[in-house]
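queue> pop job 88
queue> type: inverse folding (structure -> sequence)
queue> payload:
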């Protein structure tokens, strides 16, 4: 019987990346410091749906609760968590930047409202998902309430 190689997407997290990230983060949630067992890093900083790669510079070790909170939050909470995790990844990788985390067939654009970079396949989209959600809920642009000192 011949072994059939399993195909992977670039956004999938390979086992060796999971191990590397688990060692980097000491096998605990980087948000709440909940021990959850080594080898289970599962959160993309740049989400898969926005072209976020399955590389160690884009993967975070979060418990299920913190992972759901990060994925499902919006507005100020989303901005706060994103900023916190971005600072964490920058502290681990001096060369870290958002462009390296996104698939090459995605366009890197700068949001017209918050001036953050985001990945999209659309050629016409001009605002990021956070600002889009804030507009839906009649809130301000995502950076209006965040101070640069955070």
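queue> result:
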């Amino acid at each position: 019987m011949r072994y059939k190689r399993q195909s992977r997407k670039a956004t999938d997290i390979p086992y060796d990346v999971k191990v590397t990230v688990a060692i980097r983060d000491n096998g605990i949630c980087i948000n709440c410091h909940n021990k959850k067992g080594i080898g289970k890093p599962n959160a993309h900083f740049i989400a898969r749906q926005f072209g976020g790669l399955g590389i160690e510079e884009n993967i975070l070790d979060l418990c299920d609760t913190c992972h759901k909170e990060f994925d499902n939050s919006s507005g100020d909470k989303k901005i706060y968590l994103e900023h916190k995790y971005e600072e964490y990844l920058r502290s681990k990788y001096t060369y870290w930047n958002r462009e390296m985390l996104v698939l090459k067939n995605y366009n890197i654009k700068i949001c017209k409202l918050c001036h953050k970079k985001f990945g999209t396949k659309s050629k016409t989209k001009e605002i990021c998902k956070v600002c889009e959600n804030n507009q839906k809920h009649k809130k301000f642009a995502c950076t209006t309430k965040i101070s640069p000192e955070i």
